[in-house]
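Researcher: I need the complex structure. Ligand is iron/sulfur cluster. Inputs:
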Amino acid sequence: MFSVYFHIPFCRKACHYCDFHFSTQLGSVEAMVEAMERELAVRAAGWQAMGSPGTVYFGGGTPSVLHPDHIARLLGAVRHHFPGGVWEEVTLEANPDDLTPERLAGWRAAGVDRLSVGVQTFDDALLGWMGRTHTGDAAAEAVRRAGEAGFKRMTLDLMYGLPGRDLAGWERDLERALALPVNHLSAYVLTVEPRTALGVRVARGLEREAPEAAVEAAYRHLCAETAARGWAHYEVSNFAPAGGEAVHNARYWEGVPYLGIGPGAHGFTGQIRYANRPNNPLYLKAIRSGDALPEDRETLTRTDRYNEQLMTGLRTARGIDLLALEAAFGMRPDRAEAAAWEAAVDRGEVTAGAKATPICELELELKEMFLQNTRQELSHTKQELKNVASTLMQAQDELYETKGSWSIFDFSW
Ligand code: SF4
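Model: Output:
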């Protein structure tokens, strides 16, 4: 069993907080789809022994910038190389602006059966501050339109921990989201990434991150509000009523291999992780010339895989299956790290047989760990260098679009 992930590296506009890989140069969309078909053809032979994929996911970037014909072509390529399988879920990430009746009908006809809509907030002032291209009303209307077009499985991305936001504003966002025809929510704290416009403003002291207490209050409200509606908090950032859980994402957390396609895509064979370099011109050039795709590879050791299973298990309500871990790796944390395990049991963070700790407590701890690490890791100078590199990469993309040629700049970190 495995999954397929397509990274669609385009957005109509850069959101101020985002450090995902994307280009706003949409002139190479057609060439990119063709290149991704070719990458799939090259990689497929190594995956066919695993049968057919169970799920397909279009992430990005903004996959909804693709015309339904592009989606149909990419799904057709998956069917061609891995015939005979039945897909359990085909998800497309979409921005509200793209949810036109024509596109919705076209994506459904192509085989997409789940939409992940990037709403973030319904507050127009905050949407403007974030650099989003839609309004709150337009987003709500687009989601209703998608429901009317027959999408029964829909998730919204929401963001909390926005600077200057009070709890009442977040409560309004959540109420509005849960009144829409959706059966899943993913809610994330705004994190300030150094290679972004927001990161630069924070580094210069022009913006401040939301206080921890406000973030925590928003998260607790999210946990309580979804629980009151009978939704399961099945992963730290994901909530759904029974049957609404994301199949594709759950496979990641279970350690199922995934075939990643596109610049910036990551893949996992079960032993090896690879990451295509996040650079559109470099990717197109390599595919056109038949060169090996520039990628980073890492072979995971047994210990790496054991640690990953522990970490992903801790993120989910499913928890850690000690017997399965022992069968797969010959060790389990309650024996390998008995003292730490017992201390965690004493603190009420883990119990055998059931997950005793409310998952939101765990999220807050993980977030604190993350913040501490981030603060230690990044110096101002490095942030600034990354910002410069980001600008140069964008310039490089533009040069390629206008001149069809480019020079190689290496901005890996
Ligand atoms: S948040 Fe989404 S739409 Fe905005 S720039 Fe990032 S990938 Fe593109």
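Model: Summary of the prediction. The pocket of iron/sulfur cluster is lined by residues 11, 14-15, 18, 20, 22, 60-62, 95, 118 (CB under 6 Å).
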